[in-house]
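Subject: sequence -> structure tokens, single chain

Hey, anyone have a minute? Need the predicted structure for the following. Not urgent.
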Amino acid sequence: MARFRGPKSKVARRFNEPIFGPSKALKNKPYGPGQHGRSRRRKQSEYAVQLMEKQKAKYTYGVLERQFSNLFDKASRQKGITGTNLLNLLEARLDNTIYRLGISPTRRGARQLVLHKHVTVNGEIVNIPSYSLKVGDKVAVRERSKSLEIVTNSLASYASRRTAWLEWNSEKLEGTFTRTPGREEIPENIQEQLIVELYSK
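Reply:
Had a minute. Here:
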């Protein structure tokens, strides 16, 4: 399956945000990558700002261009605010939910867990990271995978940071997608209206 395989630190420095998790490179070099990273002060055009916001959302959720475009089309056909619908669709992805539940410390790690068949949805193994969850779906760690070191370590460090729209059963290592989150509950620093404006041109 296709995914971004480039340098994470350079991408994080481009947006000046730790979109792949804590980054030493971002802390040590809080400016854009490349030889002109320190001196680039040129004012960006409206299109450039909108494009950057779309790119940031793509990298944050680990979605490629065609997938993102398809999600936007789906969001625009739904009732409600298109930008919020888009974020809700991204949040409902299986790999993102694994990350939100604390089963994996990163979305990339969550994607690997799904691809390697360590995760079940409603009791059935699902190995598609982009699988879209519905309200009421139960996401769990497969029985034989519950002792994986990456899972136990991640859950231990994540215990105090639960997500409002997901219920977690620590005994069964199972989470439930209870509802669609409100925009104010999604912590990502994404200005979705800029993405809507970009696709509306």
